[in-house]
Amino acid sequence: MAMSNQKLTKKELNVISWRYILGSQLNWNYERMMSTGYLYGILPVLKKFYGEDKSQLQDMMNTHNQFFNTNAIFGNLIMGIDVAIEEEDGYKAKDTIVALKTALIGSLAGVGDSLFHVIWGTIFGSIAGTLAQSGSVVGCVIWIIANIALLFGRAALLPLGYKQGVKLVTTLKNKLTAFTNAATVLGITVIGALIPSVIKATVPFVYKQNGVELVVQDTLDAILPSLVPVLLVLLTYWMLGQKKLNSTRVIWIILILSIALSAAGILA
Description:
Radius of gyration: 25 Å
Strand order of the largest sheet: 1-2
Structural class: mainly alpha
């Protein structure tokens, strides 16, 4: 059991935080997914708490090597809460730890994937990509800074979870949901604003009859400016939602369609 002289230091918290960051996907497998990476991260703490009792140490290692799968970034937060409880209650907290991890991995996976895998990358990636397309080196700098900020922000989550414990998740639950919804709206707004500036697609076809010309693109612009790029984005999102299509297949479909329609004079 953890004793008062076994309190974790700031250095030890930083060590296990970075161990988890570097090893969270270590030996990822379909049976236990991220469990090996989690065990690798928390192992120094387990040795400190249970090193004097080899049977307890082995049991806790087996416990932490059971199924674990969540958003990799929020895994740091879960581990911080975990070690805080084990520091306080030691081996008798085993069942509590299992229940805690089971309860948190699902909810934090949804929030984390939305915030970091989708919204964060979409917003900063779109801004960086747009600036890079215009020849500005600032786009590259923004993307690098965004990823460095995310990396060190992730490292800070473990000490935060350690200090705040379970109350962090329960207190911020509704706020996290509100923040996720707000960030989603922001992400959609950014995507919508970037469509006409990033996607260049027009209809060059001109209809001629009895000396009268109808420029199809002008007609489409009168209905809605950048209508063709918007329709292409909607088509792409629709295809991504189909079970038999993945991002790679959708990219190939878009490439083939673009070449074929351009050769036929339908799109330019």
